[in-house]
Amino acid sequence: MRTITTIGLLFTMSTAAQAETLYYGSRAGMEVTVVKKSNIGSTHAKIVTKHTRENAIAFCRDYVQKVTPKCIADELAVELDLEIAAKCKTGKFTTLNGQGYQFKGPNEVYDPTEMNTEYVLVEVDTNEPLNGSSASGYDVALDQFKALCPNRVQ
Known about the structure:
By secondary structure, the protein is α+β, with helices and mostly antiparallel strands.
């Protein structure tokens, strides 16, 4: 009986360790855990996430480099939209930070000295492309779009 319990515990631990996550920011450990996916790659793609204690501990450990109750509480208090969605055909999507973007496809238009990106992501409110810098949030937004619409990104 003890062997079965141990095997069950190890399986549970390995499953939890392999939970799928999505970054919501560019710093190490700024992740949430994927809870549910539906209609991925469609006009109604959706991913529901949860900001878990384990996510907060990872941020405190990997970025702050000190895991404390205050750090964990502060990280869990970060306001996020825990659901992202996309209309993969049009490329329009929302991120965990509540931003609206449109994926325009491969970057064949912009000068690489001005915008060094593989794909063009445009902010819906301003119609301005993200320039590829970590400050612009390009990598984080693109990864969330890839999770919603993997068939649109090579």
